[in-house]
Write a structure and sequence with these properties.
There is one protein chain. This protein is an alpha+beta fold. It folds into 2 domains: about 120 residues, Alpha-Beta Plaits, CATH 3.30.70.1730; about 90 residues, no CATH class. Helix content is about 55%, strand content about 15%. The protein contains 10 helices and 5 strands, in the order αβαβαβαββαααααα. Helix 7 packs antiparallel against helix 10.
């Protein structure tokens, strides 16, 4: 590979690392060109699945300020750079690997944290962000500022918090408000379990930045 091509490849990979909300590292040895094409098609436009050179990827990761990936960059490597929903991408890759044993999940990266293969599996087991936020909306009632905090939170914190909410709702279905009940007709005091779930999730993701957003929402609501 010519030097100019290597420089361009490193630059492109570094940009992917900087702009992606998550990345999933895989080994693709044994996959056909048709299978790789099908995986890319299934992942959709918010995921870039790229076969990479390990040496150049290590340089690109370093340039992007990413550390801890060296152990994962061994053998034939391909990386799914995710700019959309990391849960959806992890599900697609996990399911594709079940049907195509040649695809092996090595680990990944989310919000700067290096993940192992088991972590990717846990993310894939979560319900999508949209589904969990929909469930949360049914239990939120007047908790508007906390809803803003959830939408504004970094993806990793949101995934952890929504995963905890999912577990709580599965363990205690009464914590989820009935969707057919109009919010205006449901007094907050009637569903303390829901409020507790909301408080627990919101506290998980509130940051100094989202606290400022909460204050703005509260001021607008009061006005």
């Amino acid at each position: 590979m010519a030097k100019a091509t290597k420089v361009a490849t490193v630059t492109e990979l570094a940009e992917h690392f900087r702009t992606s909300s998550a990345a999933v590292l895989t080994e693709y040895r044994g996959l056909s060109v048709a299978q790789l094409k099908e995986l890319r098609r299934t992942l959709g436009p918010t995921v870039t699945y790229a076969v990479v050179k390990n040496t150049l990827t290590k340089i690109a990761a370093k340039d992007a300020g990413v550390t801890g990936l060296d152990d994962l960059l061994a053998g034939p490597s391909a990386i799914a750079f995710v700019t959309g929903d990391a849960v959806d991408a992890a599900k697609i890759i996990r399911n594709f690997a079940k049907d195509n044993a040649a695809l092996v999940i090595k680990g990944g990266l989310m919000d700067g944290k290096v993940l192992d293969a088991a972590d990717i599996q846990k993310i894939a087991d979560l319900e999508s962000r949209e589904v969990l936020l929909s469930k949360l909306a049914g239990a939120m009632k007047a908790k508007q500022s906390h809803a803003v905090a959830l939408f504004a939170a970094p993806l990793a914190k949101t995934a952890r918090a929504l995963g905890a909410l999912q577990a709580k709702l599965e363990a205690d279905p009464s914590a989820q408000a009935a969707p057919q009940t109009p919010v205006a007709e449901a007094p907050v005091a009637e569903a303390p379990a829901a409020d507790e779930a909301v408080e627990a999730v919101a506290e998980e993701v509130v940051t100094p930045e989202t606290q400022a957003t909460e204050a703005a929402v509260e001021e607008t609501t009061e006005g």
